[in-house]
Design a protein that fits this description.
alpha/beta, 33% strand, 133 residues, 5-stranded mixed barrel
Length: 133
């Protein structure tokens, strides 16, 4: 009798597991569509393909005006300035440049082993009124 109960329990457990996989438990976890600067700072080179990153424009390169620094939006809001960032993401974009203090979503991919983000699109979401900006 015990064998029949154990066999029945095994069948029920197998059925539950199979039902779980068919209902989506076995599918890949979907990552969020827009990443933050802090999300990628540990290893930018690990992100391949086209991605979108949200941040605040912290300033422009003096040598190349097509390159600007992006700081994490939460960090800029907390500090109320763009100069307190722990990590600045260099973004290269040849289109119309955003302004310092603009919160933007930049879409593109990493080049130069993750050192520069080559943006193909920059969407200005809003201008943050920070100290001195």
């Amino acid at each position: 009798m015990k064998r029949y109960i154990l066999a029945l329990a095994a069948i029920v457990i197998t059925g539950i597991v199979l039902a779980g996989f068919s209902s989506g438990m076995g599918k890949k976890v979907r990552t969020k569509s827009v990443l933050s600067v802090n999300d990628i700072q540990a290893d930018p080179a690990a992100y391949t393909g086209t991605i979108t990153i949200n941040g605040v424009v912290a300033g422009f390169s003096k040598k190349d005006q097509t390159i600007f620094g992006l700081v994490d939006t939460a960090e800029a809001k907390l500090c109320k300035t763009v100069t307190c960032g722990v990590f600045y993401l260099p973004v290269k974009y040849t289109g119309k440049a955003p302004k310092e203090g603009d919160e933007v979503n930049v879409t593109g991919s990493f080049g130069e082993k993750g050192r520069v983000f080559n943006a193909t699109r920059v969407d200005v979401l809003r201008h943050l009124h920070l100290e001195g900006r």
